[in-house]
Design a protein that fits this description.
This protein has 162 residues and is mainly α. Helices cover 59% and strands 0% of the residues.
Length: 162
């Protein structure tokens, strides 16, 4: 007879998955808070930003400030969901990190170094959220307490414990 084995995730893989989720949550929280500050600077029309002439994507600095402020607030809210290892937060985290990359790419001439840093942060967030498989997640159904096999290779059933 054949044996029925249950798949048990390796403890090291579970620790790796938990670490990546925590990494993504912390990075998204940092990126969100920094984007909130960048949005406030844009709304206040601070002198930190460089104005560039003849740039293909010319937008009002106040408008960019509101965009970054909204993206930052959403990123902070989603990072709280990531701390709770919610699946909706993983999907929304990848989406909001992609939008942050897009917004920072379009605002490269206004604050180039900071835009590149935020693009790198968001790239790491997307990587951390996409490399984690649901079956390796510490809260997934397959990582619950393993069940005893119903038969062994010798054809006998193991004794039940009360």
């Amino acid at each position: 007879m054949t044996a029925t084995h249950t798949a048990r995730p390796h403890p090291a893989k579970q620790a790796w998955a938990t670490g990546l989720m925590a990494f993504a949550a912390v990075m998204l929280m940092i990126a969100g808070v920094l984007d909130i500050f960048r949005g406030i600077m844009g709304i206040a029309q601070d002198d930190v930003f460089v104005t560039t002439r003849n740039y293909v994507f010319q937008y009002d600095l106040t408008g960019w400030g509101w965009i970054h402020l909204v993206l930052g607030v959403l990123a902070v809210i989603i990072s709280v969901g990531l701390f709770q290892t919610a699946m909706w937060a993983r999907v929304a985290g990848v989406t909001i990190a992609g939008l942050i990359i897009f917004a920072n790419f379009l605002s490269l001439p206004y604050y180039p170094v900071w835009a590149v840093v935020m693009i790198a942060f968001s790239g790491f967030i997307i990587w951390a959220l996409c490399v984690l498989r649901p079956e390796e997640s510490p809260t997934s159904p397959t990582s619950a307490a393993p069940t005893a096999p119903t038969s062994t290779s010798t054809g006998t059933t193991p004794p039940r414990t009360p």
